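Need a sequence for this fold. Nothing fancy.
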């Protein structure tokens, strides 16, 4: 649920000479007063005299009800007179947890017009909880926040005081400051729980605030309190009341988990009448479906740790760069380029036809493919390549791509080595980023101890180009040759990594609906240790693809590859 625009206010100074501005938002309305929450440092920048302008652009001079400071609790509670139509309030509260997606709605500068302001929605994810030591014994709870990369969605000064809410529109924190001035993608937000430090009577105007302090109660007391909150309105939620009882009984036996906080937040909101009975019933009616969806979501923190520790072998598909936004042709685009008649079969069959045609040759085919992936064409950065370039430890990539974008991303940023197998000559071409090219046998390759010497290793499974002669897996006959020399295709140095049960194999950008893809995946799986885990990312895979992954004992996650990489990047940045 998006944040209501009518709940957010632009804050400026009564002194026209002060060009600073900030954001505030409505949290309560009582006895003709509309209460706005913002940051204390916004008041300091505005000289303590604040004008609040809502969606109707009508200015109201605000009174300061309570304020911390930029050095202690960076929160302030304001009030303006309001006797008109009821406005939406951001008083439905929730607790945050690492990796939780959030939304921000606040005022930023209008590009090219200094005195104009734009209300923008910003998306991101919570990082780690942090605490600032304030004056005395109080610690100020806060969050690291990570903003999604976008030309306009960047933290800037005016966003201070903006509401930071979860995807359901429940308030988590208040945006405090930008921790990454150059990029505007990292910052801090002050947890809304700190409001009680500067305004102890907050529960009188925001009854839902009481739920934030419940975690200090004994678990049994929290469960009993929840039952009491619901008992007076049980007739309104009779269809889900038994299910709620079972949930609370489970908590008595098993304890209250972090995920159960969402249930208590719903109960508190319903009791405070900030959540309607229909919405409350819908939440509990769909609780099982949400749990199943959460269980099928990758554990990004765990996966990021494995990647950073060098416990992952990345098997990157031919279309990975294209799927992540690079300006490279898809497999279908390659077929359209090579065919004049709208060919609908596998790419390998089309390449076979091109080789057999009287007016064509193998060299023509290779040159056509190379032209599509030429190095001088404009290419966008690939998020996964950027992530790998920033890893501290060496890693192994088994690539089935025809492009060299990963090499381009790593060049000048870390040591790397690219291995091109040559089945016909039974040799490998070893290209190191800091040494001359070397031709060697698969046996000789092990003596270089590449990863042990700090090199990231890229093994080009589909071959490479030698002396302007192509040794690539293109046509059907190439794949048939590949199956005959499969064991020779993998040097002992690569094979030993694949056999290591501690290494997890990740299939990214692979679609096993294609028989060529299935062949390559199976060749890798046959060298795997039986107990070694494997995963695949494939959004909306066919039932056949799902059966294939299951048969190969590969855990498949149905999610966009771009989202998977973005989540990993956030976790590795922490």
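Here you go.
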């Amino acid at each position: 649920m998006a944040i209501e625009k009518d709940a957010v206010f632009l804050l400026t100074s009564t002194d026209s000479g002060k060009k600073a501005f900030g954001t505030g938002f409505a949290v309560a309305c009582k006895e003709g007063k509309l209460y706005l929450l913002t940051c204390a440092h916004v008041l300091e920048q505005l000289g303590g005299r604040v004008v609040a302008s809502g969606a109707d652009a009508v200015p109201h001079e605000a009174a300061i009800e309570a304020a911390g400071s930029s050095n202690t609790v960076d929160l302030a509670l304001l009030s303006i007179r309001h006797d008109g139509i009821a406005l939406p309030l951001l008083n439905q509260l929730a607790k945050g947890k690492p990796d939780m997606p959030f939304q921000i709605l606040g005022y930023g500068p209008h590009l090219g017009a200094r005195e104009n302001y734009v209300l923008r929605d910003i998306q991101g994810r919570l990082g780690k909880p942090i605490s600032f030591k304030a004056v005395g014994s109080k610690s100020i709870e806060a969050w690291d926040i990570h903003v999604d990369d976008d030309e306009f969605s960047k933290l800037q000064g005016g966003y201070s005081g903006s509401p930071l809410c979860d995807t359901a529109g429940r308030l988590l924190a208040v945006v405090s400051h930008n921790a990454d001035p150059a990029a505007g993608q990292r910052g801090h937000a002050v947890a809304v729980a700190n409001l009680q430090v500067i305004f102890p009577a907050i529960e009188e105007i925001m009854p839902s605030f009481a739920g934030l302090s419940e975690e200090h109660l004994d678990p049994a007391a929290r469960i009993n309190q929840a039952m009491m909150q619901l008992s007076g309105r049980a007739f309104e939620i009779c269809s889900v009341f038994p299910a709620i009882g079972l949930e609370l009984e489970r908590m008595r036996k098993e304890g209250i988990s972090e995920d159960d906080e969402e249930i208590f937040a719903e109960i508190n909101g319903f009791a405070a009448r900030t959540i309607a009975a229909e919405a409350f019933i819908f939440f509990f009616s769909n609780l099982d479906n949400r749990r199943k969806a959460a269980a099928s979501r990758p554990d990004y923190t765990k996966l990021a740790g494995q990647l950073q520790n060098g416990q992952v072998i990345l098997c990157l598909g031919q279309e990975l760069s294209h799927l992540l936004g690079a300006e490279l042709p898809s497999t279908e685009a390659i077929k359209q380029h090579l065919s004049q008649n709208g060919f609908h079969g596998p790419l390998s069959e089309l390449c076979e036809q091109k080789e057999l045609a009287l007016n064509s040759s193998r060299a023509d085919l290779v040159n056509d493919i190379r032209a599509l992936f030429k190095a001088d064409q404009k290419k966008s950065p690939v998020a996964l390549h950027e992530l790998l370039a920033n890893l501290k430890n060496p890693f192994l990539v088994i690539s089935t791509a025809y492009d060299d974008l990963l090499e381009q991303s790593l060049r000048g940023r870390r040591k790397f080595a690219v291995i091109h197998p040559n089945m016909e000559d039974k040799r490998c071409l070893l290209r190191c980023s800091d040494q001359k090219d070397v031709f060697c046998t698969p046996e000789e390759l092990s003596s270089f101890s590449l990863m042990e010497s700090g090199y990231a290793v890229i093994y080009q499974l589909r071959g490479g180009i030698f002396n302007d002669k192509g040794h690539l897996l293109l046509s059907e006959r190439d794949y048939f040759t590949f199956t005959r020399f499969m064991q020779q295709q993998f040097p002992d140095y690569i094979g030993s990594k694949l056999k290591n049960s501690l290494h997890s194999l990740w299939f990214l950008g692979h679609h096993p609906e294609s028989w060529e893809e299935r062949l390559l995946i199976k060749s890798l799986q046959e060298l795997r240790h039986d107990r070694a885990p494997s995963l695949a990312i494939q959004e909306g895979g066919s039932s056949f693809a799902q059966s294939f992954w299951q048969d190969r004992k590969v855990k498949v996650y149905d999610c966009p590859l771009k989202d998977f990489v973005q989540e990993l990047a956030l976790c590795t940045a922490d």
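For context: The chain has a mean pLDDT of 83.
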